[in-house]
Input
Amino acid sequence: MDRRQALGFLAACGAAALPLRAAPEPRSVRTIPASGEKMPAIGLGTWITFDVTDARERAVRGEILRAFFDAGGHLVDSSPMYGASEETIGAAMPPNAQPLFSATKVWTVGALAGRRQMDNSFKLWKRRRLDLMQVHNMLDWETHLPILKQMKAEGRVRYIGVTTSHGRRHDLLERIMATEPIDFVQFTYNLNDRDAEQRLLPFAAEKRLAVIINRPFDGGELFGAKTRKPLPGWAAEIACSSWAEAFLKWIVAHPAVTCAIPATSKPAHLAENMRALAGPLPDAALRRQIAADYERL
Output
């Protein structure tokens, strides 16, 4: 069962989707430690989902972005690794994009290649300044980080960081966190992959680094046989009408997490994801119960 089928099943069980604009307050907002700037805890990833060139498909992505900003979203994350995603973002950016927090990456080897790639990102996003530039999967990070520091000093980017995914190379990421003056880290964390709880999340809090969580649905693997079943009773306590909302609230309730970035190309999924911004979050005890319940299902 894919996510769309799971949603249909839940609706049949009476867990009907709430209207996007009817989401109750308060909304989940986090603080970027480096600056005190506030950020909504749900962002938008673009891996695979924005890698399109067809005009009709790009129009759909424009609707995704419009709905994202209407629902209170800020952070949109991309990378040159994601094919045409950066170009799609620039081409499809809607008029209501004033809250945009632009986050992209450098993903190549060598200083000259890195500068050229980042210059191209500015052109594709159609922006003179980007909010966050990250070294994607720490590729040639020793070359790129000094350049990112220079770009930050010049005001071309506001924040800098490094990323990894799929639970890879946590030791190296931790070393960079310990020794480099970065503002953000990005890594994988979800109910199927909780390795970050051991060191990365507490260390990020200790170092006062903002944390972006990628693959919050484990690439869709969280949906399936387990999510055919109705939500447990605790869903009402945190105002969840779907498993996706519960998965996202479980992540962003961790005190070290700044923002989770689910990716989607479906307007209905975008609306569902953004509802995770509204209503109460699980406390530590309920987070443990959610994880235990999901494991038992």
